[in-house]
Amino acid sequence: MKTIFVDWGGNKVKLTWIPGMKINQSLKVTSVHAICIKDGNILLAHIKNRGFNYPGGHLEAGEKEEEAIIRETYEEGYVKGAIKYIGLIEVSHQDNPFFDPQGKYPLIGYQVFYRMDVNECLPFLREHESTSRIWVQPSEVPFIINDHELAKLILDDALALDMK
């Protein structure tokens, strides 16, 4: 477990990576993300207005986390494969004096992460919000994605995960 504070849009937000924490219905899951691995390389998708990152996004109404990550990895990376849960980031706005309780996000929400071992890489059609995809060596990921320092820790946990 590791906690950091980030500046999101001028707001102080507390992020805590909790590997293996069980997902239950009382948690407000706001998004799902996947570390997609094929031949030892990591998939990064270039998302409009966000740059390169792991594929992922919000859950649709009535959608389970596993359904959402399968949909999101297809929409953003055009890949399919076997998934396994890694852990989650607790996103807390408790220290954010500008938090809007009527806003889009809860006071405490969760971003769920999976590992996907890609077994099918489909033609990249650019039909959704990603403009390109690249496959990079794990050691190169921190130099390409523009995200918080937990992204590297999550990658390390994904690589260490036994997919059997």
Keywords:
single chain; Nucleoside Triphosphate Pyrophosphohydrolase; 45% strand; alpha+beta; 164 residues; 9 strands; 9-stranded mixed beta sheet; globular
Number of helices in the DSSP assignment: 3
Oligomer: single chain
How much of the residues is beta strand, in percent?
A: 35-45%
* Second-tier CATH architecture: Alpha-Beta Complex
Structure commentary:
The protein starts with a strand and ends with a helix. It has one domain (2-160): Nucleoside Triphosphate Pyrophosphohydrolase (Alpha-Beta Complex). The protein is globular. The mean pLDDT is 94. Strands 1, 2, 3, 4, 5, 6, 7, 8 and 9 form a nine-stranded mixed beta sheet that branches. The protein has helices spanning 65-77, 141-144, 150-160; strands at residues 2-8, 11-19, 29-38, 41-47, 51-53, 56-57, 79-92, 108-121, 130-136. Strand 3 and strand 4 form a beta hairpin. It is built from three helices and nine strands, in the order ββββββαβββαα. It has 164 residues and is an alpha+beta fold.
Reconstruct the topology from this structure.
Elements: E1 2-8, E2 11-19, E3 29-38, E4 41-47, E5 51-53, E6 56-57, H1 65-77, E7 79-92, E8 108-121, E9 130-136, H2 141-144, H3 150-160
Parallel strand pairs: 3-8
Antiparallel strand pairs: 1-2, 2-7, 3-4, 3-6, 4-5, 4-9, 7-8
Concise description?
It holds the Pfam family NUDIX. The chain is an alpha+beta fold.
